[in-house]
Amino acid sequence: MEVGCGSGYVITSLALMLAPLPNGVYYIATDISPHALRVTGETLEAHGLQAELVNTDIASGLEKHLAGLVDVLVVNPPYVPTPENEVGCEGIASAWAGGYNGRTLIDRILPFAAAFLSPRGCLYMVTLTANDPCDICLQMRKLGFASRIVLQRSTEEESLHIIKFWRDPEIVQLDAKQLFTAKKSVSPRLMVPQFPRLPLWKNL
C-alpha cells in the first residue's frame, strides 16, 4: 500500500519488486488528488500492473477495511518545511509542502500506519533532516514500533532518509515494565516518573 501515490512511481516499483512472489499480492494506492490517481493508473498500466486506486485524504474511510492487514506501507510524504497555508494547496506545490518542520502531514500519517500495519507489517517512510527523524521514531515508539534508517542520501540542498518501522513486542513490554518500576520508586510528592533512555535503532 502507498499513501500519497503522486505519479505512481513508488507503488509501481514496489509491485515490480514483489512480482516474483508465488502468492498474489493486492496493491492499494491513495491520494487526495484525482489527477495523481489518473497518472498512477497510467504508470501501472504501462508496466502491465494493477492496483486499487482510492481518492481520499491519507487513508480516511479505509480504517475498518484495512486495520491490521497491511504488510508493506510506503510513504513519500510532502516533507519540505513551508508555511502552513501551503499544505494541501492546489497545484504541484501540494506534492512537497509539509508545513511547520515539514511534519504536518507526516504526523497525521503515523496513527494510520500504526492502525493499518499487520503484526508482521513494515512502514517505509521518506523524511528530511529538517523533519527531525529522531522525534518521528520516538512517536512511533510510543505506538509500539521499532525503527532504523535503511537508506540515506545527501545533496547540497537536503539530506534524505528512508526509515523502516516495524512492530516490536519487546518495546511494549519494556515500556510497561519501566512504568511499573517508576511508579514503585517515585516519591509520593513527585508523581512524574523518570524513564531510562533506550536505543531507538534496532539492527536486523
Automatic annotation (TrEMBL):
InterPro entries: DNA_methylase_N6_adenine_CS, Euk-Arch_PrmC-MTase, SAM-dependent_MTases_sf, Small_mtfrase_dom. Transmembrane segments: none annotated. It is found in: Nucleus. SUPFAM superfamilies: S-adenosyl-L-methionine-dependent methyltransferases. Its main location: nucleus. Keywords: Methyltransferase, Nucleus, S-adenosyl-L-methionine, Transferase. One of its GO terms (biological process) is methylation. One of its GO terms (molecular function) is S-adenosylmethionine-dependent methyltransferase activity. One of its GO terms (cellular component) is eRF1 methyltransferase complex. Residues 2-80 form the Methyltransferase small domain. Belongs to the eukaryotic/archaeal PrmC-related family. This is Methyltransferase small domain-containing protein. It comes from Rhizophora mucronata.
